[in-house]
Write a structure and sequence with these properties.
By secondary structure, this protein is of the alpha/beta class. It contains 6 helices and 6 strands, in the order βαβααβαβαββα. α4 links the parallel β3 and β4.
């Protein structure tokens, strides 16, 4: 899985996914820190990258009107171990189910379609 980690996602999670064989790049390696969220989503889509972010409100709104390669909104947990476990379960389940990430969001353990986002 090829992922783009937003600025607000802990670096530990990118190291963890890399150890498991996933391709992960961090936003700060690709775009200026001040880049607007719409530009971040456009960049991720143009590169075919699954965006991983903790920025729920802004990206939910953007995703309803902008094409993207998929977004995971990471809900912060009480520990990094819990965050790693939740992200790993999500990626494993998506792989097992053959989920195409295009236009998909995952929020708090539930898939959210574009129709549901616009409500």
């Amino acid at each position: 899985m090829n992922c783009l980690f937003d600025h607000d996602v802990p670096d530990e999670l990118s190291h963890f996914l890399r150890q498991l064989g996933h391709e992960v790049c961090r936003l700060r390696e690709r775009l200026p820190r001040e880049s607007p969220d719409a530009e971040v989503l456009t960049y991720a889509a143009s590169q075919g990258l699954l965006l991983v972010t903790c920025n729920r409100d802004d990206f939910l709104e953007l995703a309803s009107g902008q094409a993207h390669a998929g977004i995971i909104i990471l809900i912060r947990r009480c520990s990094r171990v819990a965050e790693r476990a939740a992200l790993l379960r999500l990626l494993q389940r998506a792989r097992a189910e053959g989920v195409g990430w295009e236009h998909q969001l995952r929020v708090s353990g539930k898939w959210v379609s574009e129709a549901a986002i616009s409500l």
